[in-house]
Amino acid sequence: MQIKELDEPVRIDKWLWAARFFKTRGLAAEAINGGKVHVDDARVKTSKKIKPGMVVTISISQSLRTVIVSKLFDKRGPASVAQTMYEETEESLKRQKEMAELRRLNVQFSPANKPNKKERRQIRQFKGGN
Asked: Domain tally for the chain?
């Protein structure tokens, strides 16, 4: 199946789904209605039509991505095609790198470091508990 680039504007929820920012159109619509997607610095509705050149800001979990629309598709294709649909801005790429570095440096509590029963008792005793 060959995916054809469109000349007419596409709904923002379809484009976000086709560009693989969200797994389903429903999730894309939910994010749009929740105010997590802005087009040209304005909050939009799911029916907003986008064209090449528009700036889309997407807040997904803890990351904020700013992309410029370059191609329009309303069908979902391979990831390699989806990556050609937009260009990420320099600030957004820099922000992504910074967030990745922060996540790397943020040491999470892992089950491997979890104290056993004896160690928990010792910790409680050290802190002044029973």
From this structure: 1
